Sequence to fold (153 residues):
Amino acid sequence: MSGWKQRKAGEGYGMSLTYCFSSWAAHVVKVSKAKAGGITIDKVWTVMDCGVAVNPDVIRQQVEGSIVMALGAATTHEVTFAKGSAVEKNFDKYPLPRLRDIPPIEVHIMDNGEAAGGAGEPALPGFTPALTNAIFDLTGTRVRKLPFDLKKV
Fold:
């Protein structure tokens, strides 16, 4: 699905697998060097196995939302403190991912007739490891601190 076996020079791929809330979520993230420097996330593929797919559109939306939330946590969400108080006290000071920051996301849902599990939560924790593994595959550098700036990797 992701073209993992047809990988080309100048592309980094990373993957992860998560099990929680009685569901499996597997991510593959593809990155490349950005023209202006740093890293671009080219695409995200996710396979979700949450048992019987009662409403596939809602499952897809939950997975996409989890990926966007995880992207923000990995790259922009940071609360800083000055003189014992948070600097970012409202959303106007708290950087959230914008539409221009969201890579293409392809979600595949396995409908296997098993008991229904969680649909939103399982896709969140595995995104950042897949992203940082892709960055390592491309650059040879491990990301060790969150959040990190994709423009400075």
